[in-house]
């Protein structure tokens, strides 16, 4: 067998492709002498709004803060918020940090995104918000959730941190609910060179509240309407993000090509179903296996790096012991034991994908 090593993600390849462009953007930002909430951030917010098709974008410090500030703007304190347990921890933290009660529901067994039927079972008059997470890059089934939310006067907050550029029934994620949150963490499909995040919405009032909340709750300099935080996207990151946004569709297309090659080459391996009414941007390429520990160590011994997103559902985390409410979480618990994420990024080479497929086949034969 060949001895090539296949990294899970290699951002040095991104830097080799267009790092010179990014450095120029940084130089311009540095030379401007202005570093917080100035021209670059405003321009990026405008361009991101155009890309998603919403009226407002508000750049913040991280995806976690985007979720926190969106929940604060909605006002979830003392109310229930329905979220999938099969997600990154921040989705739940944003609820609890705002004094809300997370209600953990199951995911659909085909797509691994929040199950609308489970949402329907748990919605009630206490529900302030429902959070579809567009997990792995595939939009959740949002339309039935919007209907349920409308009937109960609840807000829909999209967690689109893994799905920049994907669409549901023709519309971009981020434009589907009342407000949406994106992480711009370096490994995300649209990633900064440090921490960053963004909130998007069409709602004037929510936009205003998030804009104030990211700057200490200020409506104007030294006038504070409520207690906010300091959570701003900085000019240097915004300058780089503006360039990267122009490349996002092309890079997502390359991810889809990598996924198509995996689909071809991985025989009899189970992966989440991609529904016809959605486009997938493959933040992650996830497969299921019966014996994860053995599978991962076999791949590792053969030079293939893997990760797990995520090994322990939120409701089973120590931080969430006795916190919130729980529905039936049997799909979540089964999936969490079986999933493995294979190397996936726009710079994956054909020989690397072939190598991964060979090693996976070798494991099945062993
Ligand atoms: C990455 C991620 C977050 C958190 O974003 P940060 O920028 O790391 O704070 C939240 N939700 C999901 C689904 C994510 O993947």
Task: Walk me through the topology.
Blueprint: H1 11-32, H2 39-52, E1 56-60, H3 63-74, E2 80-84, H4 90-97, E3 101-105, H5 116-122, E4 127-130, H6 142-151, E5 155-159, E6 167-168, E7 171-172, E8 179-183, E9 197-201, H7 204-213, E10 218-220, E11 223-224, H8 235-265, E12 285-288, H9 292-301, E13 325-326, H10 330-338, E14 339-342, H11 350-365
Parallel strand pairs: 2-3, 2-4, 3-13, 4-5, 5-8
Antiparallel strand pairs: 1-9, 6-7, 8-9, 10-11, 12-14
Helix pairs in contact: 1-8, 2-8, 3-4, 3-7, 8-11
This protein binds pyridoxal-5'-phosphate.
Shape: globular
Bound molecules: pyridoxal-5'-phosphate
Strand percent estimate: 5-15%
CATH superfamily: Type I PLP-dependent aspartate aminotransferase-like (Major domain)
> Helical content, roughly?
40-55%
Total strands: 14
Domain unit count: 1
| CATH third-tier fold name | Aspartate Aminotransferase, domain 2
For the record, the CATH class is Alpha Beta
User: pLDDT under 50 segments (min length 5)?
Assistant: none
Mean pLDDT: 97
Structural class: alpha/beta
Short structural summary:
The chain is of the alpha/beta class.
Keywords:
about 15% strand; alpha/beta; about 375 residues; binds pyridoxal-5'-phosphate; two-stranded antiparallel sheet; single chain; globular; Aspartate Aminotransferase, domain 2
Describe the structure.
Strand 6 (167-168) and strand 7 (171-172) form a beta hairpin. This protein has helices at residues 11-32, 39-52, 63-74, 90-97, 116-122, 142-151, 204-213, 235-265, 292-301, 330-338, 350-365; strands at residues 56-60, 80-84, 101-105, 127-130, 155-159, 167-168, 171-172, 179-183, 197-201, 218-220, 223-224, 285-288, 325-326, 339-342. Helix 1 (11-32) runs antiparallel to helix 8, helix 3 (63-74) crosses helix 7 and helix 8 crosses helix 11. The protein has 366 residues and is of the alpha/beta class. It has one domain (1-366): 3-Layer(aba) Sandwich (Aspartate Aminotransferase, domain 2). It binds pyridoxal-5'-phosphate. The site of pyridoxal-5'-phosphate has 15 residues, from helix 3 and helix 4.
């Amino acid at each position: 067998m060949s001895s090539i090593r296949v990294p899970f993600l290699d951002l040095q390849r991104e830097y080799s492709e267009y790092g010179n462009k990014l450095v120029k953007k940084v130089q311009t930002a540095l030379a401007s002498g202005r570093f917080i909430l100035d021209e670059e951030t405003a321009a990026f917010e405008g361009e991101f709004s155009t890309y998603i098709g919403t009226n407002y974008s508000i750049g913040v410090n991280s995806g976690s803060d985007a979720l926190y500030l969106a929940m604060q703007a909605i006002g979830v304190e003392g109310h229930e918020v329905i979220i999938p347990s099969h997600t990154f921890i921040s989705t739940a933290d944003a609820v609890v940090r705002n004094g809300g009660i997370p209600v953990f529901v199951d995911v659909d067994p085909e797509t691994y995104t929040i199950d609308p039927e489970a949402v329907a079972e748990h919605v009630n008059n206490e529900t302030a918000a429902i959070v579809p997470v567009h997990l792995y890059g595939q939009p959740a089934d949002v339309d039935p959730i919007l209907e349920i939310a409308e009937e109960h006067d609840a807000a829909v907050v999209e967690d689109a941190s893994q799905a920049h550029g994907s669409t549901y029934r023709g519309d971009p994620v981020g434009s589907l609910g009342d407000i949406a949150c994106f992480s711009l963490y370096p490994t995300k499909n649209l990633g900064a060179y440090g921490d960053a995040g963004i909130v998007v919405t069409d709602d004037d009032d929510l936009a205003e509240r998030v804009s104030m909340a990211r700057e200490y709750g200020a409506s104007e300099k030294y006038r504070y309407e409520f207690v906010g935080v300091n959570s701003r996207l900085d000019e240097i990151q915004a300058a780089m993000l503006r360039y990267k946004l122009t490349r996002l569709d092309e890079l997502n297309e390359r991810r889809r090509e990598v996924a198509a090659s995996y689909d071809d080459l991985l025989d009899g391996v189970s992966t989440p179903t991609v529904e016809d009414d959605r486009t997938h941007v493959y933040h992650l390429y996830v497969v299921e296996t019966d014996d994860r520990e053995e599978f991962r160590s076999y791949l590792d011994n053969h030079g293939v790096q893997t990760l797990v997103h995520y090994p322990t559902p939120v409701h089973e985390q120590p931080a969430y012991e006795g916190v919130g409410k729980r529905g039936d979480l049997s799909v979540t618990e089964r999936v969490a034991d079986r999933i493995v994420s294979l190397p996936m990024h726009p710079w994956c080479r054909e020989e690397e994908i072939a190598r991964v497929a060979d090693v996976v086949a070798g494991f099945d034969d062993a």
